[in-house]
Design goal:
This protein has 559 residues and is an alpha+beta fold. The chain contains 20 helices and 20 strands. It has 3 domains: 157 residues, DNA ligase, ATP-dependent, N-terminal domain (DNA ligase i, domain 1), CATH 1.10.3260; 194 residues, 2-Layer Sandwich (D-amino Acid Aminotransferase, Chain A, domain 1); 129 residues, Beta Barrel (OB fold (Dihydrolipoamide Acetyltransferase, E2P)), CATH 2.40.50. It binds adenosine-5'-triphosphate. The site of adenosine-5'-triphosphate (ATP) has 14 residues, from strand 1 and strand 2.
Length: 559
């Protein structure tokens, strides 16, 4: 299949904002995609080469890409760089450079999707000495045979800047439409495997029946089951039917561990592969997990003096570190508190009740200094539960989780089977969708940020406030650098920003307000931290803001 057909799809997707139309375009394209390409095309449509959990990365920056285009077209690098300043879009500038190319080679071959994809794989897999050079040559070869529009989309894919507005929801519906299967079956299979390529293939070749048979697979991360809030331990206990498992809510980073023999892969909450950054955890897992093949989940916590937990940002620092990892192992020791098991030696456990899974978990691990079982109390007594909760806080933990003893594991669902209880109004994780340039000494820095909650029904980000405090000067420099490439529109001092960056925001109160479309406004919002571990779609939802508002009013009534 020609790459030009995919380029044509990208162009059409870019031209419409209508979700139904986008879904139809993608569905039509999937229908005509041959079986052997079906596993890769869904990701290419999302503007990616690999799923997020695949460790491979292209590792190509703007500079290297421009070099490759320059070699392929004969247009000097400087000229391409200048053109980017005009167009504001490297993709456009690549297309222009290809148009300028004087001669087409006689041997120029029309690009196929397979060739483009295979080249991306080679680029990703080029490692070690001279790899930058090899990456560049592979890409130059592609650009040599690319038509202008093809070049534009290849460049955007390489840099991860495809803007076709196709998110996971559209892809799910398009797979259902293309192969006449139920969207909820596609969703289910995707929640279990996080692999749209695989799901599309099963949908096409085996239909609804095949999708129904899809189950947990070692090596493919499962979407994590999530929790809702409860105002108190008592409320949680009532909601759970009078008896529940209470566990410490550790304040760290959630991980999903897949062990297959002596191979261990660890995924973050966003299902990114973080294995390489935490070799200490890998070896501890190999020692503690006795089963040959197993998938477990837990919270990775940074431990400080006297074994007290340190803020979760410390764990994220470990995830980010690529070099001198040994030094980081010393500086930020980690401890993994396991709270669930989803698969053991060929047996999928997600449909077992939680109490059973906990038993299996206890049988599966031998606790060690670094690998522990989440501390748990099963009770039907409010006072006991309250005491457990207070003890957890005293030890420096975030609060407790209450879990229904009879509940199955629901991948990707934020339901009432798990409830979290924390002492204060919770911070919100919100997406930056706008900002304002500062004044005077800070005129070159973005200062005040318009933040939004996610509305999963419309897929929109709805503003709930403006955050201007809590930032250090360094933060502002960093945010300006990070957000500048995401500016989509400027109007006077205000800039509109593509929703990509998630920040944690604290506030004094949630107010009802007509000021924003959401109907809510945060009072005294203040920046707490950058949430690099969350994608915009994982930001707090507008429903959550509404729920927190209700809690707040309830608490007010109690006071
Ligand atoms: N014992 C535990 N059982 C389950 N989750 C736990 C436990 N201890 C800590 N956690 C963490 O709490 C999270 C559950 O809360 P929630 O579903 O609200 O996730 P979240 O959106 O990341 O919220 P938060 O910012 O509060 O962690 C889990 O994703 C996990 O990271």
């Amino acid at each position: 299949m020609r790459y030009s057909e995919l380029a044509d799809l990208y162009r059409r997707l870019e031209k419409t904002t209508l979700k139904t139309l986008k879904t139809k375009f993608v569905a039509d394209f999937l229908k005509k995609t041959p079986d052997e390409l079906l596993e890769i095309v869904p990701y290419l449509i999302l503007g990616k080469v690999f799923p997020d959990w695949d460790e491979r990365e292209l590792g190509v920056g703007e500079k290297l890409l421009i070099k490759a285009v320059s070699i392929a077209t004969g247009v000097p690098e400087k000229e391409i760089e200048d053109s980017v300043k005009d167009t504001g879009d490297l993709g456009e500038s690549v297309a222009l450079a290809i148009k300028k190319k004087k001669q087409r080679s006689f041997f120029s071959q029309p690009l196929t999707i397979k060739r483009v994809y295979d080249t991306f794989v080679k680029v990703a897999e080029a490692q070690g000495e001279g790899s930058q050079d090899r990456k560049m040559k592979y890409l130059a070869n592609l650009f040599m045979d690319a038509q202008p529009e093809e070049g534009k989309y290849i460049a955007r894919t390489v840099l991860g800047t495809m803007r076709t507005g196709v998110a996971e929801g559209i892809l799910r519906d398009a797979i259902a439409e293309a192969f006449k299967v139920k969207p909820e079956m596609v969703e289910r299979a995707y929640m279990l495997t996080s692999d749209f390529g695989y799901v599309a293939k099963v949908a096409k070749l085996e239909g609804n029946d095949g999708l129904a048979k899809v189950t947990v697979q070692i090596g493919k991360p499962i979407r994590p089951m999530l929790a809702q809030n409860a105002a108190s331990v008592k409320e949680a206990l009532v909601e759970m039917g009078g008896k529940a498992a209470f566990e410490i809510k550790y304040d760290g980073a959630r991980v999903q561990v897949h062990k297959d023999g002596d191979r261990v892969v660890i995924y973050s909450r966003r299902l990114e592969n973080v294995t390489k950054s935490i070799p200490d955890v890998v070896s501890a897992v190999l020692e503690s997990l006795k089963a040959e093949k197993v998938i477990v989940e837990g919270e990775l916590v940074a431990v400080g003096e006297g074994g007290r937990p340190r803020p979760f940002q410390f764990v994220l620092r470990r995830f980010r570190r690529k070099y001198n990892i040994d030094e980081m192992i010393e500086r930020i020791p980690l401890e993994l508190n396991l709270f669930d098991v989803l698969y053991v030696d060929g047996e999928t456990l997600i449909n077992l009740p939680f109490s059973e899974r906990r038993k299996r978990l206890e049988e599966t691990i031998a606790e060690s200094e670094k690998i522990k079982l989440a501390v748990q109390l099963v009770t039907n007594n409010v006072d006991e539960a309250q005491e457990f909760y207070e003890k957890a806080l005293e030890l420096g933990h975030e609060g407790v989780m209450a879990k229904r003893l009879d509940s199955v594991y629901e991948p990707g669902n934020r339901g009432k089977k798990w409830l979290k209880v924390k002492p204060t109004m919770e911070d919100l994780d919100l997406v930056i969708i706008g900002a304002e340039w500062g004044e005077g000494r800070r005129a070159h820095l973005l200062g005040s940020f318009l933040v939004a909650a996610f509305d999963p029904h419309s897929g929109e980000f709805v503003p709930v406030g403006k955050v201007g405090s809590g930032f250090t000067d360094e933060d502002l420099v960093e945010f300006t650098k990070m957000l500048k490439p995401l500016i989509v529109r400027e109007e006077g001092k205000f800039v509109e920003i593509e929703p990509k960056v998630v920040i944690e925001v604290t506030y004094q109160e949630i107010q009802k307000s007509p000021k924003y479309k959401s109907g809510f406004a945060l009072r005294f919002p203040r920046y707490v931290a950058l949430r690099e571990d969350k994608s915009p779609e994982e930001a707090d939802t507008i429903e959550r803001v509404a729920r927190l508002y209700e809690f707040q009013e309830k608490f007010k009534a109690k006071r």
